[in-house]
Amino acid sequence: MVQRFAFHGRRPPVGARPGSLALPAEPSPRSIHVIEYGPGGHLVERDVVDVEELVEVRGAKGVKWIEVNGFGDEAGLRRIGEIFGIHPLALADVVNVPQRPKVESYEGHDLVIAWMARLVERECELEQVSFIVGADYVISFEEEEEDVFDPVRVRIRGGALICTMSADYLAYALIDTLIDGYYPVVEALGEAMETIENETIDQPSRRTMTQIHAARRLILRLARAMRQHRDALSTLARGENGRIGPEVRLYFRDSYDHAVQINEVLESYREIAVSLMEMYLSSLSIRMNEVMKVLTVISTIFIPLTFLVGVYGMNFEYMPELRQRWAYPAVWALMVGVAVTMVIFFRRKGWIGGGEEDDAEAESDEPRGGPTA
Amino acid sequence: MVQRFAFHGRRPPVGARPGSLALPAEPSPRSIHVIEYGPGGHLVERDVVDVEELVEVRGAKGVKWIEVNGFGDEAGLRRIGEIFGIHPLALADVVNVPQRPKVESYEGHDLVIAWMARLVERECELEQVSFIVGADYVISFEEEEEDVFDPVRVRIRGGALICTMSADYLAYALIDTLIDGYYPVVEALGEAMETIENETIDQPSRRTMTQIHAARRLILRLARAMRQHRDALSTLARGENGRIGPEVRLYFRDSYDHAVQINEVLESYREIAVSLMEMYLSSLSIRMNEVMKVLTVISTIFIPLTFLVGVYGMNFEYMPELRQRWAYPAVWALMVGVAVTMVIFFRRKGWIGGGEEDDAEAESDEPRGGPTA
Amino acid sequence: MVQRFAFHGRRPPVGARPGSLALPAEPSPRSIHVIEYGPGGHLVERDVVDVEELVEVRGAKGVKWIEVNGFGDEAGLRRIGEIFGIHPLALADVVNVPQRPKVESYEGHDLVIAWMARLVERECELEQVSFIVGADYVISFEEEEEDVFDPVRVRIRGGALICTMSADYLAYALIDTLIDGYYPVVEALGEAMETIENETIDQPSRRTMTQIHAARRLILRLARAMRQHRDALSTLARGENGRIGPEVRLYFRDSYDHAVQINEVLESYREIAVSLMEMYLSSLSIRMNEVMKVLTVISTIFIPLTFLVGVYGMNFEYMPELRQRWAYPAVWALMVGVAVTMVIFFRRKGWIGGGEEDDAEAESDEPRGGPTA
Amino acid sequence: MVQRFAFHGRRPPVGARPGSLALPAEPSPRSIHVIEYGPGGHLVERDVVDVEELVEVRGAKGVKWIEVNGFGDEAGLRRIGEIFGIHPLALADVVNVPQRPKVESYEGHDLVIAWMARLVERECELEQVSFIVGADYVISFEEEEEDVFDPVRVRIRGGALICTMSADYLAYALIDTLIDGYYPVVEALGEAMETIENETIDQPSRRTMTQIHAARRLILRLARAMRQHRDALSTLARGENGRIGPEVRLYFRDSYDHAVQINEVLESYREIAVSLMEMYLSSLSIRMNEVMKVLTVISTIFIPLTFLVGVYGMNFEYMPELRQRWAYPAVWALMVGVAVTMVIFFRRKGWIGGGEEDDAEAESDEPRGGPTA
Amino acid sequence: MVQRFAFHGRRPPVGARPGSLALPAEPSPRSIHVIEYGPGGHLVERDVVDVEELVEVRGAKGVKWIEVNGFGDEAGLRRIGEIFGIHPLALADVVNVPQRPKVESYEGHDLVIAWMARLVERECELEQVSFIVGADYVISFEEEEEDVFDPVRVRIRGGALICTMSADYLAYALIDTLIDGYYPVVEALGEAMETIENETIDQPSRRTMTQIHAARRLILRLARAMRQHRDALSTLARGENGRIGPEVRLYFRDSYDHAVQINEVLESYREIAVSLMEMYLSSLSIRMNEVMKVLTVISTIFIPLTFLVGVYGMNFEYMPELRQRWAYPAVWALMVGVAVTMVIFFRRKGWIGGGEEDDAEAESDEPRGGPTA
Q1: Residue that terminates a domain, selected from B126, B143, B164
Q2: Which of the residues A245, A295, B108, D83 has an alpha carbon 20 to 30 A from that of C359?
Q3: Which residues have a Cβ under 8 Å from the Cβ of A351 and sit 6 or more positions away?
Q4: Which residues lie closer than 8 Å to E213 by C-beta, 6 or more apart?
């Protein structure tokens, strides 16, 4: 399992004025989808084509969720910022991805940066999602259009509890969905580590090493992100920024709890990965040693024998043994005797033959259960 | 010693509304056992079949311990929640196991999540036990029926001190029982590590490596759980949640102390496990080196001899030695001399013969006392 | 990538009175450039030749940026200190480089020490830049004249937002430029590490080792600097020193955020570097093992054969085989048979031939994406 | 140096009511010695046989030191608790050893748990000593009778300063004696580590490894204990528990200081032990490599020579050299030449002969001074 | 570079009454030098022979610096304590060296313990220097007479700023001189590490290992001392003990800053030392591997050749090749062919000849710049 990034670091040039936007060279087209809802079944959905329509949206009653997918042109973005009174630094953090997951308070709104994690073809993809949380609206910014928020949309359309709650609960529902999205990733990672673990014990190859290294880097990255999410959620759960009501804080505490749990699992993966590297090294060395041992034993058995046959290959005139009828078979007998004695000796010492048994034993004792949880 | 989990991670789908319950596919049947008691020998026990009976239970005088084993159907669980005013998020934490050990305050009740550790056939099993602690009742939720709380039941029936105390003391008695249940597990783990230690020094095999790795993972997991229990107990001992009376806080401080002690033992196991891995690697390398040394020494002794016999196997016409009567015995004498000289030289250098002595010495100096405590 | 320092540690002798200045043996000439600006397009730039002109500068209206490049003579420096009321200890920290990045409050002014990082011919160069931040002026001290502040100068000349802000914003603009200057360095470092990573897997040589070591030292140094910058910026962002207005604090928070981000990337580089060292060691050992395995296998195949030909080189009179016509080809057949059997056996065991496949597999599975971010 | 425990973990069964006492199967007989003293030379000593005598002791004027050696029967212990109003949980901590070193406040008295360390036949023995500190008395509990408090007894009998001070000073005097008892243990440990260090460099054997491992475990255990003593002493020195007067706090601060110092020494031992393990591994590998190098060089020199003599052992009819008179000596000359060339080449490369010089150099540069302090 | 201690641990026996002095067996003679100074050029210096003269000194106007070199007899020391009202515990800390660097407040005076570091013949020597800081006097205690405070004496005699300041500034001047004395030590250590680094890459020997180990221990020790100095200076700089005036606190902050800087350098040395150990191990293994590779290649080339000549040494009657005129040269040609093919094959595989190139490459890429700073 490796990681893939939907975004690559984009920053304005060094020394640019603060609040400069670094849009991608080929900006993705922008689509804006607005959902207005409120108690009593009030629910309006619409796609916004012209940014100016948002002036009207802003003024509407009820809770507004403005979903912005793709950044589009700079002028439009700046106009959105103007309409909702977004601080230029906040807007810059939305556009100049990646920013670390965080919560920042500005006058009139909060900025929440989160990273979405998804599995795409067995690879882990991370993407920044930014939220501007105002008194009665939430703007979500994503660079690519995804269906990750579909369940929330369904809940709103279904007139669930969410419709009777204020904008901070909407923010919670969106962020919670992102955090929960880490669970399948972490589970897949756990399964991948189990596979690596088995490979480490049974078939350590160079591929195992690069896989352990890759897993370690992915864990490092996810743990770092999750730690920052956790801190951000703790800020929200304790209501430090003053925008989250006491009821919704309970919900954020639940989200915070999930972040803590995922983080702990990742921390233990990290230690397991270190342990795997050590096991890999030792597995490699055991395997090599077994090979060398067998080969060296073979050489060692034949070397004295070769010496013996060399002795009777000497051309001295007076070697009485050479004349005896029984000498040749006797030498063979001697050599077989030497070889058998050495094999028995080596077996007793456990230098040959023991390797296979170790394997058998080991198989029956492999750690059960994966590293998950 | 490996770990086994009675529960596997169950979560509602990503994006589900908060408070969703993820019951197991085949829910275990639910049995509810209620004990009401109070000062003056008041004691009523009954098995509740219909959830509605709990309305009456709730209204009863005295302290109520409602033991729920198995989750049963969702409707029944929700009804229990309604009767006792359990917050939906608290109920979700009870059902969607595993949650990390923690204490959370809600209006009217606290939620305490703890993990029970037991030894089942030399394996460590963990199971979540959840407590809803109200003003005059404690509800305990377990997924499988266990007899772990039997001693508490016996104490209540015996009219011990516990009968004169309030619900927070009951909560203490139950949680303390869970925490103390870690002692036998940790002791068994200590014994297992001693066995591994001896094996590491005497007979390092691939099995040793997987065992060290498995022990490390189990330690990691237990230490993580115990750290969280410790933090939760510290919250209770300091009375932060406002529900624990000053007298019972002393008892929780005692429990907290046990958690600290177990945690410290686990922390030292962790360091010992790292040290064991290093010892294993070096044991392996010493053992291999000894084999290679002996084998190489054998080769090295025979190689010059083989060269010598080769010399007199040459077919030159004018090799005066070949004609001499004494030449053949002389060559033998020379060869024996060379071999003996080399053996003496190798012995002096400590390259052969020393290995055995090392073994003997080492045996008399093995660390006494296990890693326990 | 290695590091280079523009400055070498200069300190006054041990026991010198505090505030002593340790100027370089050959002091670089001093050039002073002043920019005065204010709202309404007020903008004056001038090069100051005589230090006494600064008296007039100090008295002028608007925000003053006094850029001092090169320290020049001690008397001049002390006079500058006098004119602006700089505390002798602050002046000593400006001159006796390197000081750690920090913020210190003195009466009437603050001292900010920062380290500039730049890439010069693929090497990382660090240089101390010091700022004296007063109520309406900023003095920047650099030992060598650089064009790093050009973008800020351009922004002032262009009459941008900066012209309407006070001196603390100017300080922010300058410091932010320095911090952002770490991005390209860190990115280059990330690329260098990717190169090392590939080399570690494919061609581990002694050069790889010294490169990993050098990278580790550079990371260590940059992370240390960045950690201190972060702490200094946190002080400024929280307005602890009482000189930064609430509006500008938001900007410093942004800078602080960049420092945190760079720091986190460096921390992960650090772990990756440790992992690289382990991979290097294991790569080395795998590669060596492959060589040894092949060579040992060759020896092992030939040793029994050599024994066999030795047998028939013996000079016994009664060796019936020697007389047979078919004996010589039979021995050849036997030897080929032995050799083939051994090769097949070794192949089955995976001792030969498997190495190449491992390589192929490994190549298709290298971790994608560099260590950046 | 290994560790030995005078006590083995004793706990009541899981689920037992809090305050249960787990006395050893064969309880050691209890002896109680009381010293009453006060200003003006007031001094009474007596051995208490019947527990009831303590009622009178409690009522006596002056400071009382009740020394309880051996726990005896449960009823007697509980009676002592009753007389002095000891909380059941405190009494349980005294009996159910080992408890971690700590200070706990109860109504009317404090509980101080400390661990005594002593050297017994070159082994480190740990034993729990518990103190109940009341307003005008100190009860000390030890499981085995020791003479560790003799110096304090002598000071009291000698009418020293201690006789004019209150009970908290007595508690200080006793605890300080225990803490100072770690100095000789730590010094012996330091000497043991120096011995191991020399062995690691000069004669690394399997015994060295088990010794390093044992030392590491002992250090781990002592450091853990000392850290907890330090925290407990810090509580006392800051007077947090409200029982220690301001004058005596200064003395506890001194004790705290000793604990910090011992702890720091142990922390550095810990790092040194890790370094020793690495040195051991590398020593082992150097030593092995030297052996292998010499042996391999010997083989390598003889292998081409053996080939050469093999050439002239061939039975071709037309080998003109075989007929020449000078051929045999010439082959000898050639062989000597090849051997000498190879030896010179190997020497130049530093593959032989260098080992001894390394030894010599190393000896003159061994780290002087032990790891102590 | 190794460490040497001018003092060895001296403690009173376990259980001695607090404040006991453990003077060296052969106490160094005591010399007392007093400097009185004040504003307006007031300056008196004198050598005190009789301790009683200090009564008069204490009463004198102006700031008094009483320099005590060598402890002399206990009675005299106790008398000095009496005259200046030094707390017995403070006096014990002065005499019973080593104490950890610290600041402690007593009634009427503070105790400052610092460790002086000096280079003596390329070795690092540490010595405790203690200061009693009163309202208008500073007593400095040193066990051996050193000229380390000469620069301060010169500054006082020269009538510098110091003469107009109070006793706390004198304390600062003395302590600052000690702290700055670490700079040359740390620089020498940095140079030593650079030398070790080069040796590690070019000529790894057993000596290198003991040097790395020794450096590591020295770094450990210095870092520990410096960390404690830093904490003590932080206490002084924040004026926590209430004796340091606000002006002098600025100066202590400067000293604190130096301690932080030295500490950070030592921390990075520590990481570099760990990295060096790893490089050493890998250097060793590369070097060994190169040797073994060359030797094994030589063996491997000759083994098939030896087999070949063995074939034609067989004594079969019917070996047609033996009769052919061209057979002998043909066998030679075959053998040369086999050898050349193998050499080419090995070269292609990079098993021979590559080692030298690696060396060359490595040399051009060694990390530039030492570990300093």
Answers
A1: B164
A2: A295
A3: A293, A297, B291, B295
A4: D275, D279, D367
pLDDT digits 0-9 by tens, A275-322: 898 888 888 777 777 777 777 888 888 888 999 888 888 888 888 888
> How close does chain A come to C105, measured CA to CA in Å?
26
Q: How is chain D split among helix, strand and coil, in percent rounded to 5?
A: 55, 15, 30
Contact A313 C316 (CB under 8 A): no
Mutation target vs E (from D254, D262, D312, D356; most E CBs, 10 A cutoff): D254
Nearest CA in chain E to D296: E295
Structural domains counted in chain B: 2
Is C314's CB within 8 Å of A328's CB?
yes
Q: How far is CA A219 from CA A177, A213, B27, B100, C148, in A?
A: 21, 10, 34, 20, 37
The alpha-carbon radius of gyration of chain B (Å, integer) is 34
Distance from CA of C45 to the nearest CA of E (A): 35
Supply C135's token pair: 């109520």
3-class secondary-structure state, position C91: helix
- Largest interatomic CA distance in chain E: 121
Q: Are residues D14 and D157 in the same domain?
A: yes
Residue A263: closest CA among A315, A232, A224: A224
Sign of CA pseudo-dihedral E81, E82, E86, E87: positive
Which of D118, D147, D166 is the endpoint of a domain?
A: D166
Per-residue pLDDT of chain A (373 residues; tens, 9 = 90+): 666 655 567 888 888 888 899 988 887 889 999 999 988 788 999 999 999 999 999 999 899 999 999 999 999 999 999 999 999 999 999 999 889 999 999 999 999 999 999 888 888 889 999 999 999 999 999 988 778 899 999 999 987 788 889 999 999 999 999 999 999 999 999 999 999 998 888 888 888 888 998 999 899 999 999 999 999 999 999 988 778 988 899 999 999 999 999 999 999 899 889 889 888 888 877 777 777 777 788 888 888 899 988 888 888 888 888 888 888 899 999 999 999 999 998 888 777 764 444 443 434 444 433 333 3
Instruction: Compare all CA atoms of chain A with the CA of B12 and give the residue at the minimum distance.
Output: A180
Instruction: Assess C295–E contact: CB distance below 8 Å, yes or no.
Output: yes
In a domain, D194, yes or no: no
Q: In CATH, what number is assigned to the domain containing residue A315? A: 1.20.58.340
CATH number at residue A119: 3.30.460.20
Residue E185 in domain: no
CB contact at 8 A, A57 and A79: no
How confident is the model over A232-289, as pLDDT tens digits? 999 999 988 778 988 899 999 999 999 999 999 999 899 889 889 888 888 877 777 7
Residues E157 and E293 in one domain: no
pLDDT in tens, D161-171: 888 899 999 99
- Whether the CB of B330 is below 8 Å from some CB of chain A: the reply is no
* C360: Cβ contacts below 8 Å, ≥ 6 apart: none
Chain A: partners with 3+ C-beta pairs within 8 Å: B, C
**CB nearest to C322's CB, from E285, E296, E315:** E315
User: Is B84:B135 a contact under the CB 8 Å cutoff?
Assistant: no
* β pairing state of A63-69 and A137-142: parallel
Residue B191 included in any domain: no
Bridge partners of D116, per DSSP, are D127
C93, two tokens? 């920290």
In a domain, C34, yes or no: yes
E207 touches chain D (CB under 8 A): yes
Classify strands A63-69 and A102-106 as parallel, antiparallel or unpaired. unpaired
- Note which residues in 63-122 of chain D have CB less than 8 A from chain E: none
Three-state DSSP state, A369? coil
Domain span including residue C119: 1-162
